[in-house]
Amino acid sequence: MSALTALTLKGALEGLASKQFSSEEITRAHIAAIEAANPQLNAYVLTTPEKALEGARAADARIAAGEARPLEGAPIGIKDLFCTEGVRSTACSKILGNFIPPYESTVTANLWREGAVMLGKLNLDEFAMGSSNESSAFGPVVNPWKSRGSNQPLTPGGSSGGSAAAVAADLCLAATATDTGGSIRQPAAFTGTVGIKPTYGRCSRYGIVAFASSLDQAGPIAKTVEDAAILLRAMAGHDQKDSTSLNIEVPDFASFVGKSVKGLRIGVPKEYRLDSMPAEIAALWDQGIAWLKAAGCEIREVSLPHTKYALPAYYIIAPAEASSNLARYDGMRFGLRQEGGTLTETYENSRAAGFGAEVQRRILIGTYVLSAGYYDAYYLKALKVRRRIADDFEAAFTEVDALLTPTAPSAAFGLGERVADPIAMYLNDVFTVTTNLAGLPGLSLPAGLDSTGLPLGLQLIGRPLDEGTLFSLAGAMEDAAGFRSKPEKWW
Amino acid sequence: MAVDAATVKKVARLARLAVPEARLEPLAKELNAIIAWIEQLGEVDTDGVEPMTSAVAVKLPMREDVITDGAQRDKVLANAPKSADGFFVVPKVVE
Question: What percent of chain B is helix, strand and coil (3-state, nearest 5)?
Fold first, then answer.
């Protein structure tokens, strides 16, 4: 049975279509794998085996009747930031407690409409605020990867740590995730998986617990570039329930994988070459450049002069939006209520008891930068810097078709190593946060292992709505890298 | 700059977060470190730059002004910490 969990999404869909195995079989194999692994990895915060098997049997009936849909019978995992009707959805925060949504997020509804089967809900940093999955109310996820010769538990990255770990450990064929500053791409890099944050507006945000609405975007984490393309097509699409959802056609992203990249111009932004960058990451980046050159791409150095201001701007804009979005958790209509003597005290007690330390920190920063007397100096300034960053990209894209950068400034680090220093933690997103600010698509793919055997990722950044080119480039790099490594099973 | 304990207290009140007295000083320190790091934005020349308020330049779509949803009282109340007779039960607001 374990061979079934090792399949790619594409391989599984082919096996299901040709009736080599049933959806019930592959779903049961995943349920068994989760049962064995989850006590160690903590990737799932809720499993829904009965719902999964019910979905699998329905899928098998459809396949038998010749009515299979594009994802028919494929068991996948859902980040617990997506509301799922009748299934507890918590954003891994105590303040949502036992919240059971009476509605379904548009992205997950799209997946069920195409026949996918839900295995359960995946762990994340509380409200997706974090880069190590350590702010989750359910405790951290443990990365299935370990440094060679070491037993130290490592972070899978965050916030989509559960999604990335589950895909890397074969606990689902693929998973949904979300990315506000790097929350799809950094965990993908830390776990040897592929993740893409599409152009802002590709996926509906309806039913995704809001963090920073002008930056939040859903996307897949998968085992291969093609799998990510397959899942993204199913997740994306226009939705009237999200006014920022783009009313444009969704291309067949998988058709771009395998296309020639000859003649494409690739920009290498010089500002991303940080002094503090580990030599192995710099070398891998050079290797990536060499692969694309060998595939016929033209490499050009480009300049994105405002890069270093992206993170500080993000840490004004994201907390400001979060402080507004999280005002809804008032203990009155849903979630946790902690009574106080007055209404205000009830609000204050509920929110103090329900939100964790990092979320409270960000609410306070956000409230501060939006408060009277500081709004212009901080919030408005950050929005202007955001425009500068977006303009940098626009200028670069007049010269090149895509950009190549590292995904993260390090490999996976030890759990507990960076929790004491918020800014050190924020620096994880130094290469990823720029695309959220500019609304651009960014894809991370595994490109190699460091000297201790941990995966490292490279990032491709594209023009708005040009995910197709990213999939072509990523496909070419995946072939060149020949990355087939899986974590050695210790769980 | 310099966020002090009194500022934290004021901001926490605005954000409706109960912060114990003993946490005000340490939080002021943490926030100061973050704000000091953010201050580097002052180096960027933003004269005449339009603030960027949305990630993608699109016109907000309008829809027909028709009722498309509603009559879901029980669903709306299903997750309430307290409810009775089809209403939310909240602390007394008006004396």
Answer: 40, 5, 55
* Token output for A424: 């050190």
pLDDT band at A484 (very low <50, low <70, confident <90, very high): confident
- pTM of this structure: 0.97
Closest CB to B44: pick one of A306, A335, A340. A306
Distances (CA, A) of B89 to A334, A341, B16, B80: 11, 15, 20, 8
- Chain B residues with CB-CB distance to A438 below 8 A: 55
Q: Residue A317: what are its φ and ψ, rounded to 5°?
A: -65, -50
Interchain pair B55, A201: CB under 8 A:
yes
Exposure class string for B35-47: b at 16+ Cβ within 10 A, else e = bebbeebeebebe
Residue-wise over A251-287: b if at least 16 C-beta within 10 A, else e?
A: bebbebbeeebeebebbbbebbebeebbebbeebbeb
Instruction: State pLDDT tens for residues A292-312.
Output: 999 999 999 999 999 999 999
Distance (Å, rounded) from C-alpha A439 to C-alpha A317? Answer: 14
In a domain, B70, yes or no: no
Q: Are strands A194-197 and A442-449 parallel, antiparallel or unpaired?
A: antiparallel
Q: Which of A360, A383, A380 is nearest to A371 (CA)?
A: A380
Q: Is the pLDDT of residue A5 over 50?
A: yes
Q: Considering CB atoms only, which of B11, B30, B76 is closest to A371?
A: B11
Residue B32 resides in a domain? yes
Mean pLDDT value of segment A375-390: 97
> What would the two tokens of residue B12 be?
């926490």
Searching chain B, which residue's CA lies closest to the CA of residue A434? B55
Regarding beta strands A117-122 and A44-47, do their DSSP bridges make them parallel or antiparallel, or are they unpaired? antiparallel
In which domain, by residue range, is B30 found?
5-42
Tell me the catalytic residues of A.
79, 159, 183
Q: How many beta-carbon pairs below 8 A join chains A and B?
A: 165
| Beta bridge partners of residue A87, listed in sequence order | A84
Name the token pair of A336. Answer: 């946790």
Q: Do B58 and A246 touch (CB under 8 A)?
A: yes
Chain segment A197-235, per-residue pLDDT in tens: 999 999 999 999 999 999 999 999 999 999 999 999 999
CA A167 to chain centre: 12
- Whether the ω angle into residue A159 lies within 30 degrees of 0, i.e. cis, is yes
Domain count, chain B: 1
CATH label, A2-259, candidates 3.60.21.10, 3.40.50.2000, 3.60.15.10, 3.90.1300.10: 3.90.1300.10
- Classified as helix, coil or strand, A79 is strand
A140-162 tens-digit pLDDT: 999 999 999 999 999 999 999 99
Cβ–Cβ below 8 Å for B38 and A378: yes
